[in-house]
Structures are given as C-alpha cells and as structure tokens.
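Extended Data, panel c. Modelled sequence:
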Amino acid sequence: MENVFNTNEIESPLLKKMVKHRNIIVILFISLMTLFSAFFQIEPEEVGVITRFGKYVKKVEPGLNMKIPFIEQVYKVPVERQQKLEFGFRTVHAGVNSQYNRSGAEDESLMLTGDLNLADVEWVVQYRINDAYNYLFKVRNPKNTLRDVSEAVLRQIVGDRTVNEVLTVGRTEIATKMVELANIICKDYSLGIKIDQVVLQDVNPPEPVKAAFNAVNQAQQERETLINKAKSEYNKVIPKASGQAEETIQKAEGFATERVNNALGEVARFNAIYKEYIKAPEVTRRRIYLETMSSVLPKLGSKIIIDEKGNNVLPLLQMKLNK
C-alpha cells in the first residue's frame, strides 16, 4: 500500500514522529476513549439502569460506576426529582414574572360538568418516578400515558359535579380525588410513576358566558352579605329583647311574691289580733285605737282637733300658735 504521508515533506520533527507512530497513537486514543466510556457518574437524585444489548441487567446507585464499553448502556432516571405536567396552558418563562401560553392547549381544559355546563379547568400534575424499571420498559411513552390518564380522570370527576362545585367549594375535593384515582391507574398500568399533588391552577367558565357567570356570582355574594347583615342584626336585637323580657318576668314574679308575702303577713297579724280580741274585746279595741292614733297624729303636723262645742278656746289657741 502506498504511503499516504510523505515524511520527507514534513519539516517539524514532532510531526514526523507522530506520523511515523500514528498507528500506536490511534490505538492509544481508542484505548483511552474505551477506558473513559467505561466509567459514568450518577447524580444524587438519579438512579442508573444498565442494559446489555438492550436487555435489563441491573440498577446502580448514585456515585461513580462502571459498565462494559460499547456493550452495556446506562439510562439515568431522576427518581428523586419532582416533575410536572401542565394542562390547559404551557409555561413559556418561569420566574418572578412567569409567562404562560394557552395556544394549542384549549381542548385540554374545556370540560362538561354533571349539570351539563362547561368549565375551563387548568391544572398541574406533580409526580415522581418511583420505579425506574417500569418507567423505562413497561410502557412505551409513560409521560404521554400519564397525561392521558390525568385528563381522563379529571374529566370523570368533573362530570360527576355541578359547575358551581367545580368553580367554588369543590376544588380541594376534586384535586384530592384525582390524586387517589390517578395513582390507582398508574399502579395498574405499571407506569413507575407516583402522583404527589394535583393543583387546580385556574377554574373559570368559558369566555362566551364568563360575564353571565360573574354576574351570578356577584349576586350570590351580595345575597350572602345581606343574609349575614340580617343575622347580625338578629343576634343584636333578639338576645337584648330576650334579656329584657326575662328581667320583666323576674320583676313581676318578685313583685307577686312580695305582695303574696305581705298579704300572708297581714292575714297572720289580723288573725293574731282577732284571737286577742276574742279574749278581751273592750281592751283590745281601745288598744288598737290608741296604737292607731299614736301612729296617725304625729303625721298631722300643727293641727288641733277640738270639740264642736268648745267656744272659749280661741285665745288660748292663739297664744299657743304665737309660741
């Protein structure tokens, strides 16, 4: 074979040596490449899956590992990393001011509710790979399968509820139910995926009827406000009126008890006096008269009671009054 390189034309001694020993250099280069390709690094959040001629051999843990060059192949699977799928929108730029795009994803979010209304539901599925072998070899495209499973499960759950539940109070229950059902299906399909959380990012009525829904919601909020105000006034007036009524009843009962006790006391006093009167009528009558006059006369003030036949007492009365 004719020599491709003419060493006489090369002026550099180093190049002459390299060309002369080029076969050895190529062999050394291939040996180094083979040696370096035998080692690989697995990150802390990953696990390595090694296949030999396409057949699964083993899993390796994070750190520096080795494989047979050109025969074995390694797949790095991020089993500790939380990943997400977005439905109804796509994140264009993530950060403090994240940017989203709905173009091409409108059909994912439009759903029919149980009362035959439409709701526009945007949600995020957060998941982890819990079985690297199943994730790589059991299903052809596990991410697309997970997307289909998530959409089917959420449509089923939304289809069992009214539009008001989906838009307002039922969002937490829907997310929890979806995690439960989707994980069951992922396990049955051997996806090697476990869903950690479902977040209903935004739930709105469709754009053509959004204004009408907002008007209805505003009316419902105003109704709740008026009901709360009425309950507040009720709680202010009714307890006060109940307290006043209770106070009046207690006063009336106290007054009635007082009158009854006074009456009973008067009756007992009268009966006691009557018993004494029966024993000595004349004496008792005079004593009662004197006791009555002793209590009445001090209250009369400067008054003199005279006999109608007393004609000669006026000067004496005048003197008495002057004193």
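The first strand starts at residue 39 and ends at 42. This feature is highlighted in the accompanying rendering.
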